[in-house]
Design a protein that fits this description.
The termini are close together. The chain has one domain. With 160 residues, the chain is mainly alpha-helical. The chain has a two-stranded antiparallel sheet. Helix content is 66%, strand content 5%. It contains seven helices and two strands, in the order βαααααααβ.
Length: 160
């Protein structure tokens, strides 16, 4: 009889991979399309294993990302905490949506993230992002189903 059990290394390895994917250099043409990997991976863990991640871990991950990427200190922390709060608030509904509706909901959350970035940049007097950066949530939506499947496979493993 086989049983499924959680892989304890899946969470830290997936978050590290998301940080590394955010550091991968892209050509200038593709830079605006870079998905927000940390938000996608964090959203997965908030939906599937909320006992392992929380608002505090989203904040710490955001501070680490701010230091790693050299962005405004606290910007990504704010973005990830807002995302985590919304997902925790609506987790009971989001978790049981069909994948198509879950993908659309995540697209709205990623678009909300872009609005937060624009507001922070406006308040700080930093130049606004080009219009092409608003396309990244669409790419994040397209990546959600395969990423969800990949992380499910990594999180759950059979034990013989």
């Amino acid at each position: 009889m086989s049983r499924i059990r959680n892989n304890p290394w899946a969470l830290p390895l997936s978050l590290a991979a998301a940080l590394l994917l955010g550091l991968v250099p892209l050509p200038d043409v593709l830079q605006p399309l870079r998905p927000y990997w940390l938000a996608l991976v964090l959203a997965y863990w908030l939906l599937e294993a909320p006992q392992r991640v929380s608002l505090g871990s989203a904040f710490l991950l955001g501070l680490l990302a701010d230091l790693t990427f050299g962005s405004l200190l606290g910007e990504q922390a704010l973005r990830l905490v807002v995302l985590a709060f919304i997902i925790e608030r609506f987790r009971a509904r989001l978790r049981f949506f069909p994948m198509s509706q879950q993908t659309l909901a995540l697209g709205v959350l990623l678009f909300n993230d872009r609005v937060i970035v624009a507001a922070v940049h406006l308040l700080m007097g930093v130049p606004q992002l080009a219009w092409a950066y608003w396309l990244a949530p669409l790419l994040g939506m397209l990546l959600w189903p395969p990423l969800h499947l990949l992380l499910d496979t990594a999180r759950l493993r059979r034990r013989g």
